[in-house]
Amino acid sequence: MSGPLRSFFLGLAPRPTDPRWELAAESIAVKIRWFGLVVGGLVANFGSDQGDRLPLNVILALGFGFTAVNTVLYRRGRVFLKDFPLLISAMEALFIGLLCHFESGTESPFRFYYLLSLICCAIRYTPRVTFVTCGLDCFSYALFYIAQPDGGRNPYFFLLTLVILIWVTWTAGAMARLLKRAGEDLRVLNAALRENQAQLESRIADRTRELEESQAQVLHQEKMAAFGLLAAGIAHEVGNPLTSISGVVQMLERRDPDSYTRDKLGLVTGQLARIQAILRELVTFSRPASDTRGRVSVRDVVDEALAIAKFYKGGKNRQIVAAIPDNLPPLVGVRDQLVQVVFNLVLNAIDATGKGGRIEVAVVTEKERVALHVIDDGTGIDPAHRVRLFRPYFTTKKHGTGLGLFVIRRIVEQHGGVVGVESEPGRGTTFRVELPVAPRTQILATD
Hints:
The structure is a single chain. By secondary structure, the protein is α+β, with helices and mostly antiparallel strands. It has 13 helices and seven strands. One of its GO terms (molecular function) is ATP binding.
């Protein structure tokens, strides 16, 4: 088969289209066919008396059966004889030609059904299929024109009808192509609109999350600032009486008291020193955090956090152990922020464990990272809560703010690390913080 002929026949094959367009076009075709059957029934039985009503009604009944099957399949979302468009065109050409033959020949009103057939074909199939259908209709019409007696032929009327068929074929095909192109453009625009809408929604969600995190960060900073002011005020108000008491004790010691009194004064001096040390730790922890980055010792960070955590309610009723190996590589970061990370994790572990519970802070090195684990044997975390655990304002505590773990994640990510959690309800929880160690060149330069 030659190239042009092969390409012509390939153009007759049905092309894949949008199922929504196929069903919409099928809906129009079904309605046109039902309209034609109703009008045909009226013409055959109440129109002119030139036709033979019995064969006309038989042909219309066959058309009714064909259209009924077409309608049932359409209701089920299928296209009748979708892969055989020319078979439908040939059957329609034969159907219309027989109606014209048994009614009044080439001048029968049923000849207008050729136009309906061409319109149905144009909105459903390719232009080539439509022009082949036009050829079948012209052949059908010409065949019954030739079969008419010589006295019933009207060449002018015959040629005019053929011209109209060709003109309607071109017009219907052009309009169908225009509608399909407009529909395709509309689908492309709708797809782009949906994509832009999805991107906009994603951006809005990102901005909303960033706003919530910023608000949470501001709230946490305000809370820490208020705590710092309170701690400084307590240290000042308590420090003045302690200084006076310390001065009185020193004055009594200078008066050469007896051994019993000296022992008691020494005990008071020791307790005063202890109170002053606690106040210094409290003030140190509550002072405005520095954002200066530098080398940070992991052991110093853990020791400072545990020294403050021991004053937390319930801290003395828990067994807190630290497993920190020697010669850990230093980190690069903000010391106060890293202390806050460990401190918050230990406080959460204290809240999660009961009296006599065990909390372990373990540190290991993994290649170029340091992994810090805070392990408790407490109640564990509900799997449904784990997804929301690091979001701002999410808390399961009665009087919690929902900012502790959020701040931890924020600080760890700012230091180039990651934080994760493993938990089993009723068996405890492990928080894991991974942070990069200081570059070797920086360690050597500092040493």
